[in-house]
C-alpha cells in the first residue's frame, strides 16, 4: 500500500502526545490532553484496516495472523519485562497474579490486583484490548460481502455502546467493550471509505477542520478542562479528516524524522514508560529541575521506543513478511 504520509505523521504525533502525558504525570506537570493521542490512534486504526483490506483482500484467518504477528511479540516482550521487574522488586507497587498476567497476555480486560482498575500488567496495553476486539470483529466481517461489512460492524459497535448506556455492567469485559471509544474505529473506517472513493474535503474545508481540532485540543489542555472520548473522539476525527485533505491536495511531503517516528509509534507507545520511570527516579536522586526532568523524560521515552523499533519490531516484521511471502509462493507452486 502506498504510504499516506499524513497518517504517518499523525501516528507520530499521537505517540508523542502519550509520551508527553506520561512524562508530565511523572514530573509534576500538566498535560492530561496528551492522553487523547489514543483517540487519534483508534481513528487511524479503523482507517488503515479498511484501506488495507480493500487493496489487499485477505481471509479472516490471514488477517488475524497478520495482526498477531504485528502486535503480539513486542507486547509480550514488554509485558515480560514488567513481570520480571516486579519479581525482582523494581516495581514495588505492582502486584502480580497468574490470572491477571494471563489476561494481560491474551488481551482480556481484567482488574489489576495493584489498583483495581481495568488495566493489564503493562498499563498502556489497555488500548490493545480494544484493538484486538476491533481486529476480531473486522476479521469476522470479512466473510460478508464488501457492501455489508461497514454497516454490520457499525451496527454491532453501536449496539454495544447503547447497551452500556441502558444497562449496568460490573464485569471488566462488558465495562470495557461498551465504552463509546469503540466508535472511533467505526469513524476511521467511514473516513477510509470516503478516501477510497476520492471524496475528501477540499483544502479550505480540510484546513478549517484541522484548525478546529487542534484548537479544541489546545483549549482543553490550556484551561485544564475535563474531557472524555465523547469530546476527544470527534476532535480526533476532525484531525484525521483535515490531514487527509492536505494529503489529497498534495500538501504533505515525506520528511524522514516524522516518518521514522510514525513507523516506530507502536514501539514508542509500548516502551516509553520504562525510560520515563528511570529518568524520574534518577532525577530525584540528583535533584534535577522539573523542567529538565520533563525534557529528558520525553527524549528518553521517544529514543527507547525508536531503538526498540529498530532492534525488535522491524526485524520481527521483516521475518513475518518473509514467511508470508514464502508461504504464498509455496501455495501457488502447489496449485
Task: Give structural attributes.
0% strand; mainly alpha; disordered C terminus; 13 helices; 335 residues
Quick description:
The chain is 75% helix and 0% strand.
- The sequence of SSEs as H and E is HHHHHHHHHHHHH
Tally of DSSP β-strands = 0
Distance between the termini: 26 Å
Integer average pLDDT:
92
The total of helices stands at 13
Summing up helix and strand content along with how strands pair, one would put the structural category as: mainly alpha
Helix content: over 70%
Q: Outline, from the CA principal axes?
A: globular
Using only C-alpha atoms, the radius of gyration works out to 20 Å
The largest sheet is: none
Low-confidence parts: 329-335
Strand content: under 5%
Please characterize this protein's 3D structure.
With 335 residues, the chain is mainly α. Helices cover 75% and strands 0% of the residues. The protein contains 13 helices and no strands. Helix 1 (5-27) packs parallel to helix 12. The longest helix has 45 residues, at 290-334. Residues 329-335 have low confidence and may be disordered.
